[in-house]
Every structure is written in structure tokens, then in C-alpha cells.
Amino acid sequence: MKNIAIFASGTGSNFAALVAKFSDAAAGVHISVLVCDQAGAPVLTKAQAAGIPIIKVDYRACGSKAKAETTILRQLPPVDLIVLAGYMRILGPTLLNAYPRQIINLHPALLPSFPGRTGIADAYNYGVRVTGITVHYVDSGIDSGEIIAQEPVRIVRGESLAELEVAIHAAEHKLLPAVVVELLNGGEE
Ligand code: GRF
Choosing from 107, 136, 169, 173, which is the catalytic residue? Predict the structure, then answer.
């Protein structure tokens, strides 16, 4: 059994997809903890409902990114992988150096196109006919680490941004748990 930590800031639909996938012990992955930097984020309720321990971190109260990351590191149980699932922060060297090639992120566009916070809308507004999702290793840049997996999502003519968002999230909920299993257990399920 491999252990993961999930970092999330918001809704937590990908967190929920990971919880659903790994509720089956056959997947061989255990979610040890949720790390959340936003008080009141809906993902917190999802973790409570699933009985998953939570580390809450208040970056402002910590005074700096380095101090906040040290606070997280002190509380983090041993994990094989850290999964950023909607964690709206750029990681600093404190966390990156502690977990080399062990931190992955999910991005809702086909990197290197449309990095940043608004990847779905940026791709939609640009008018691309194919966008998609990317899972990549995290480095110190904005969505710039080595790509692990991608999945295309077509934009149908006349499709609304809201419809595209639904399609992107559906693709994310499949790809992210599959990539975690593959990285940790060599693709065996
Ligand atoms: C996802 O679209 C992910 O690609 C991006 O943040 C979003 C998180 O959504 N990094 P949710 O909180 O998992 O619903």
C-alpha cells in the first residue's frame, strides 16, 4: 500500500474522485491526509465526510511561504507522493527539495499551452478546437514541470464555456487517479 497526500484549495471534485478510486483497497493507494490552505473550502467538508485527516495551513499567519511550507512538512506523515489537485499556490524550495519528483499537479489545459489559473477559459476564448488536461511534475514555475500524461478534450462548435468545464472536469476525474496508480504501482490495478 502506497500513501499519498492531496493538496487542495477549493471545490475538491478531484479530491472526491481520488477518494472514490482509492476507497477500493485493490488500487493499493491510501490517502493519508488532505492539506488545505483555504478556510471554508468545500474540499474540507469532503475530507471530513471521508474520514481523511486534514492539515490546515494559513499562509498569512505563517508570515512567509517558506514558513508555511515548513509548517506543512512538520505535520505531514510519510508519503510516497504529493498530489496537487486544485492547490492554488506555487510551491517553494522547502517543499520541492523535500519531495524531489514526488509532487504532481493537475492542469486543465494541454500544457505548455494555457498555463495559469484560467486555463479552461483561456483555451476556450482563444478558439482552439482541441484542449485538454495535463498531469505534470511540479517545479518552481507556473505549470512548467515535466509532463507525465495528457488527455485531449475537443471543443464542439457552439459549446458553452460551462459545458467545456464539465467535460474537462470529467476527463480530470478519470486521468488523475489513473496516473497516481500508474506512478505508484507501475500501472497494476
Ligand atoms: C481543476 O480543474 C484542476 O485542473 C485545477 O484546479 C481545478 C480543481 O478543481 N488545477 P476541483 O477543486 O478538484 O474541483
Answer: 107
142 and 170 Cβ atoms separated by less than 8 Å:
no
Cell of 62: 505563517
| Structural domains for the chain | 2-184 (3.40.50.170)
Three-state SS for 58? coil
The pTM score is: 0.96
Ligand 1 centroid from CA 14, angstroms: 6
Q: What is the distance between the alpha carbons of residues 150 and 141, in angstroms, rounded to a whole number?
A: 19
Beta bridge partners of 29: 2
Task: Decide if 134 contacts 109 (C-beta within 8 A).
Answer: yes
Q: Is 98 exposed, middle or buried (0-12, 13-18, 19+ CB in 10 A)?
A: middle
Rounded-to-integer distance, Cα 59 and Cα 32, Å = 22
The end-to-end CA distance of the chain, in Å, is 12
With a cut of 50, say whether residue 189 has pLDDT above it. no
| Catalytic site includes residue 173 | no
Q: Is 85 in the pocket of ligand 1 (CB under 6 A)?
A: yes
Report, as an integer, the average pLDDT of 109-133: 98
